[in-house]
């Protein structure tokens, strides 16, 4: 069962999200927040698996709140008073805007996914399940704009990021490039002729070395450092937008 905290400052929109999500047998709404400060408090007390943020374009205050939700006590795995590991919630953002600097900032702060607010219902539920399991979600229509925004951002501190990239082994660079190209863990394992458990081990090592919390930040890092080029997008017959996986 995946528990969800809804963050939205519009009562009717919160009600609509709750009513729809409660029709899903594997999703449970544990609370609602109308402001980011309240969201931080509820995330701390309710411990949802996913915080669903639907409040428009994030500003600096909102970015700080996302950081606090995903990194409680400035430590993603800070222990509770009883000594058990405190696993922070995942954050999925619904936005009405194309990806821009604020969207990149939200990802840097620890968000695990971005969807446009006009996403189809099944896309939303699939995204919630994906991030709850530790995956990353980027709306296909946001990919191109996000890549452009990342390319603008990366100029100022590219040297520092490339220094972190230099700590990766050759195999880890291959895994990161495949991950950024949209390959699943199973596909990476098959492509590189390694075990799925080895892929997971490499991804864990990559996240540690580049200072990323989740896979979506690693994907952004791969674009920022130039490890992968912006994808040539094409449509699958079912309407899904896939990156070019050739090469």
TrEMBL record:
Pfam families: GerE, Response_reg. Keywords: DNA-binding, Phosphoprotein, Transcription, Transcription regulation. It comes from the Bacteria. It comes from Streptomyces prunicolor. Gene3D superfamilies: 3.40.50.2300. PROSITE patterns: HTH_LUXR_2, RESPONSE_REGULATORY. The keyword Phosphoprotein applies. Residues 3-132 form the Response regulatory domain. Coiled coil: none annotated. This is Response regulator transcription factor. Residues 161-226 form the HTH luxR-type domain. The modification 4-aspartylphosphate is found at residue 54.
């Amino acid at each position: 069962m995946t528990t969800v905290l809804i963050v939205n400052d519009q009562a009717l929109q919160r009600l609509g999200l709750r009513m729809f999500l409660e029709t899903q047998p594997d999703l449970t709404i544990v609370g609602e927040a109308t402001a980011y400060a309240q969201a931080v408090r509820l995330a701390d007390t309710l411990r949802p698996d996913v915080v669903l943020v639907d409040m428009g374009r994030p500003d600096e205050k909102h970015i700080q709140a996302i950081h606090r939700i995903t990194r409680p006590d400035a430590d993603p795995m800070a222990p509770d008073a009883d000594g058990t590991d405190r696993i922070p919630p995942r954050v999925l953002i619904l936005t009405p805007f194309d990806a821009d600097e604020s969207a990149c900032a939200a990802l840097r702060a620890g968000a695990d996914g971005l969807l446009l607010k006009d996403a189809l219902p099944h896309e939303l539920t699939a995204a919630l399940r994906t991030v709850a399991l530790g995956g990353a979600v980027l709306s296909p229509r946001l990919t191109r704009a996000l890549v452009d925004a990342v390319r603008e951002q990366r100029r100022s501190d590219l040297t520092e990021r490339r220094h972190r990239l230099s700590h990766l082994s050759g195999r880890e660079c291959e895994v990161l490039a495949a991950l950024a190209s949209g390959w699943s863990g199973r596909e990476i394992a098959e492509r590189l002729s390694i075990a799925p458990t080895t892929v997971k081990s490499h991804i864990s090592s990559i996240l540690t070395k580049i200072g990323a919390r989740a896979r979506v930040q690693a994907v952004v890092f791969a674009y920022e450092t130039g490890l992968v080029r912006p994808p040539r997008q094409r449509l699958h017959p079912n309407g899904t937008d896939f990156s070019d996986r050739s090469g």
